[in-house]
Amino acid sequence: MEKVTIEIPTMYGDHHVLEVRKILLSIPGVQDVYASSAFGFVEVTYDPEKVNDLEIKMKLDEAGYLGEWNLPVELSVPATEKTEHPKYFRHTAIFETTKEVVSFSQNIGYTGRPLWPCPGMGVIKEVMED
After folding, report:
1. Which CATH class is domain 2-62?
2. How far is it, in rounded angstroms, from Cα 22 to Cα 33?
3. 93, 106 contact by CB (below 8 A)
4. In the structure, what pLDDT confidence band is assigned to residue 88 with cuts at 50, 70 and 90?
5. By CB atoms within 10 Å of each CB, which of 87, 114, 120, 130 scores lowest?
6. Is the pLDDT score of 15 beyond 70?
7. Pick from 3-7, 27-31, 70-74: least confident
8. Diameter of the chain by CA atoms?
9. Where are the domains of the chain?
10. Which residues pair with 45 in a beta bridge?
11. Beta strands 103-107 and 89-93: pairing type?
């Protein structure tokens, strides 16, 4: 058995730890996985006759965990000004389920990979009372 330690900058919460473990433990030859969102790394124990560390890294990269975590930056000029850079507009919303909490969203027109899955997180459903 061999071990490889891989830095994963986009594993920032326990829900990502669960997903990374699920991905890695589904690979034939992977025996054990220790993943830490606090330190941003994963340690994989694997059988080198069945899988190698490059295949493990490729699987993580396919799932979007090895890439850089880039966020768009707002321009310092108002969105109404003419510029060759893309403009980002913020939208605000208040929802009945969150009461007085205000949220901000922004359409950025990103054409790459969407946000990675967050297991257990879903859409809030309104409950009809009798």
Report:
1. alpha beta
2. 9
3. no
4. low
5. 130
6. yes
7. 70-74
8. 61
9. 2-62
10. 3, 32
11. antiparallel
Amino acid at the residue 6: I
**In whole angstroms, what is the distance from residue 61 CA to residue 81 CA?**
39
- The one-letter amino acid code at 18 reads L
Extract the tokens encoding 97: 């389920």
Rounded CA separation 112/72 (Å) = 12
**How far is Cα 97 from Cα 60, in angstroms, rounded to an integer?**
35
pLDDT given at position 82: 74
pLDDT at 86 over 90: no
| Token pair for 3 | 């071990």
C-alpha 24/C-alpha 87 separation (Å) is 39
